[in-house]
Each structure stands twice: as C-alpha cells, then as structure tokens.
C-alpha cells in the first residue's frame, strides 16, 4: 500500500517530534517533511508536493490560516488538516474559508488524528466533535427561514464541503467559474449566510451534508 505523504508544520520542537513519532507508527503514513514556521511550510508544500499538510494554527512568520490560503491557492494543492489549541468558532470558519478540510483540537487522541488524516486525504471534511457541536449550534441559533437548494446548488455545495475551490468545482461540473460564483450567491441568499463555510455548516445542521466523520472504535 502506498503511504500517505504528510508534511508536518508545528513550531514547538517537542510537539513536532512527538507528533511525527505518532504518525509514523502508522504503516500507511509517511512524514516527508517538517516546518517550524509558516513560510517554511508554504515552501516545503511546494517543494515536496505532499498529499496532506498537518498544520498548527499558531505558527510564527505566517499563521496557519494564511499558510492554508497560500497552499490551497495553487493548482493540485495538498489538502490541509488544522491542528489547533483554539476552539473558537471564528478561527474554525476562517480556517475552512481559507481552504482547510479539517480542524482538530490538540486534545484529540492519536487515533483521532490518524483517522482524520485518512478522512481528509479521501476528500472528507473533518471537525473535532466539540468544534462541530458549537458550529452547528451557532448555525441553528438564528432559526432563519430558508429556501430549498436546487440539485445543481447542492452539487456545488457538496464539492465545496470537500475543499474544492471555484475553479475546481467549475471543472468537475463542466461550468464556468462565473456560473459557480452565481450558484454560491444564490446559495448564500437562500440560506441567509455570507460565506461558503457558513453555508456548509447550515447544510450540515439540516442533515444535507455530513460534516464530521467519527473515528472507528477499536
């Protein structure tokens, strides 16, 4: 079996070394590089072309959100899984808006981290259970009325939930980028939201999308 190639970005050396040891105990994962700051993470992601970047939010030089934005803005970019000490909803929304496909807290178990790496690499969106509950509660708090989405709008939203950007969505659905942008405008208006992350969370709160993948019980 070909191993998943992971780039690890964490500024604390002890944490970085411990995380690497945990990941490399799994025979399906190979840590191909390490970065101690955000600028190095961006450079190594370009140089090493990993399958996934496991990224700390609080990196020096460039923070994790900006690193995610720069990494995911390139063609054929690796997926990004954020590992953070912060469970604030605004951080999560900013990370996912920047292109992260997952957001775990550093309290997650090693089993949960490994399960999330595999889920994100396969195209799923993964949020730590605590974070997911808070986002879903926030999504449902307003009780705003909504209009049903069309089949095409749901297709666009499902691809967005997998971390695809507008250009990628356009290519998959054989649409122009402008048409995809128009679909998002319609989705935002129907759901009463202002960003794709909020749209994904609202759709998940209504059972239209699966936002979280529970790790297997062993």
Characterization of this structure:
- This protein has about 220 residues and is an alpha/beta fold.
- The protein has two domains: about 5-135, Rossmann fold (3-Layer(aba) Sandwich), CATH 3.40.50; about 140-205, Winged helix-like DNA-binding domain superfamily/Winged helix DNA-binding domain (Arc Repressor Mutant, subunit A, Orthogonal Bundle), CATH 1.10.10.
- Helices cover about 50% and strands about 15% of the residues.
- It has ten helices and six strands.
- The protein has helices spanning about 15-25, 40-50, 65-70, 90-100, 110-120, 130-140, 150-160, 165-175, 175-190, 195-205, and strands spanning about 5-10, 30-35, 50-55, 80-85, 100-105, 125.
- A six-stranded parallel beta sheet has the order 2-1-3-4-5-6, sandwiched between helices.
- The model is unreliable at about 210-218 (pLDDT under 50).
According to CATH, the homologous superfamily of the largest domain is: Response regulator
- Count every beta strand, where a strand is a DSSP E run of 2 or more residues: 6
- Rough outline: globular
Count every helix, treating DSSP H or I runs of 4 or more residues as helices. Answer: 10
Number of domains: 2
What is the succession of H and E elements?
EHEHEHEHEHEHHHHH
- Compute the CA-based radius of gyration: 17 Å
- The second-level CATH architecture of the largest domain is 3-Layer(aba) Sandwich
Low-confidence stretches: 212-218
Beta-strand residue fraction: 5-15%
CATH class of the largest domain, named Alpha Beta
Largest sheet: 6 strands, parallel
The level of helicity is: 40-55%
N-C termini distance:
22 Å
CATH topology of the largest domain: Rossmann fold
């Amino acid at each position: 079996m070909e191993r998943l190639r992971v780039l690890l970005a964490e500024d604390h050396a002890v944490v970085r070394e411990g995380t690497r040891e945990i990941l490399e105990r799994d025979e399906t994962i190979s840590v191909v590089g390490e970065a101690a700051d955000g600028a190095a993470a961006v450079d190594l992601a370009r140089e090493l072309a990993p399958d996934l970047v496991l990224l700390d939010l609080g990196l020096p030089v460039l923070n994790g959100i900006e690193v995610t934005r720069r990494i995911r803005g390139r063609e054929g970019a690796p997926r990004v899984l954020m590992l953070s000490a912060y469970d604030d909803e605004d951080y999560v929304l900013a990370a996912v808006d920047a292109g992260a496909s997952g957001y775990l807290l550093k309290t997650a178990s090693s089993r949960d981290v490994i399960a999330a790496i595999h889920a994100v690499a396969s195209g799923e969106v993964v949020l730590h259970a605590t974070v997911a509950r808070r986002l879903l509660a926030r999504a449902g708090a307003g009780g705003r009325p909504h209009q049903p989405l069309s089949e095409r709008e749901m297709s666009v939203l499902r691809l967005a939930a997998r971390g695809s950007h507008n250009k990628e969505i356009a290519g998959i659905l054989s649409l122009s980028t402008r048409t995809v942008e128009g679909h998002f405008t319609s989705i935002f208006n129907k759901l009463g939201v202002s960003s794709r992350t909020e749209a994904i969370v609202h759709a998940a709160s209504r059972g239209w999308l699966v936002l979280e993948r529970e790790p297997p019980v062993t």
